[in-house]
Write a structure and sequence with these properties.
There is one protein chain. By secondary structure, this protein is of the alpha+beta class. It folds into 2 domains: 86 residues, no CATH class; 117 residues, Cytidine Deaminase, domain 2, CATH 3.40.140. The chain has 10 helices and 5 strands. The chain has a 5-stranded mixed sheet, sandwiched between helices. Strand 1 and strand 2 form a beta hairpin. The radius of gyration is 21 Å and the shape is elongated.
Length: 226
């Protein structure tokens, strides 16, 4: 079996990480360091540079679909390895947030919602957040994959969840893979249907957020919820 190329370089990179942390590395070096553990017997420096050149940024490499990563020169296993990182970040972040027993900070809610879509930008999903009478989160999860037209078929599911958790208020969010955080006419119609259905069981739909890239638009603050 071929021995690892530049083994001394790898040792120096690991030592640099242990001494100074991740942030001191250039984008391609961060990717190179990560690829050490998926490609043990090759020089990953040139590959990391090619990936950054092709996709533009470190985060864009991790956000790229598996098929595009394979087309860029990775094996399926290597592509899956990189795709794990956004999922790990999302899970880590959400667990830390969900451990908070206090009431939801409404001002921080857009950022919290945006982070829940990390690594999921290429597939439209609908997120439901339920809160109790003290404003504490009692449920948070994706209720459906697909756009809000699909969510129309899940109104009963959302209502059942609200009743099961004894919710007092609700928020919904969905993402636009197109990158445009503007609601469609169908988005607005479905939002009103959900609001009316929840009101029948005394649950108030307080807001609907649309996530697109780094944007998280509130329909309530935009005056479009009513």
């Amino acid at each position: 079996m071929q021995k690892a190329d530049h083994s001394g370089h790898r040792a120096r990179m690991r030592e640099k990480y242990l001494k100074s942390g991740f942030d001191v590395f250039a984008p391609h070096e961060k990717l190179e360091l990560m690829l050490y553990y998926a490609i043990p017997y090759r020089n990953t420096n040139d590959l990391a540079k090619r990936l950054i050149e092709r996709f533009g940024t470190f985060s864009a490499v991790l956000d790229a679909p598996i098929e595009m990563l394979i087309d860029a020169g990775l094996t399926e296993n290597q592509a899956v390895y990189l795709k794990l990182f956004p999922d790990v970040v999302r899970t880590y972040y959400c667990e830390k947030i969900d451990d908070n027993d206090g009431p939801i900070d409404y001002d921080a809610l857009p950022d919290m919602i945006r982070h829940r879509f990390i690594g999921l930008e290429h597939e439209e999903r609908v997120l439901l957040i339920l809160c109790d009478t003290k404003g504490r989160m009692c449920f948070s999860g994706f209720v459906t994959e697909g756009n809000l037209e699909t969510a129309r078929l899940s109104v009963r599911k959302i209502v059942r969840l609200a009743m099961h958790y004894g919710a007092f208020t609700a928020f919904i969010a969905h993402n636009h893979p197109s990158g445009v955080a503007l609601p469609s006419a169908q988005d607005l119609r479905t939002t009103r249907e959900l609001r009316d259905a929840l009101s029948l069981v005394d649950v108030r739909l307080l807001d609907h957020f649309i996530v697109a890239g780094n944007e998280c638009v509130s329909l309530a603050q935009s005056g479009m919820l009513d």
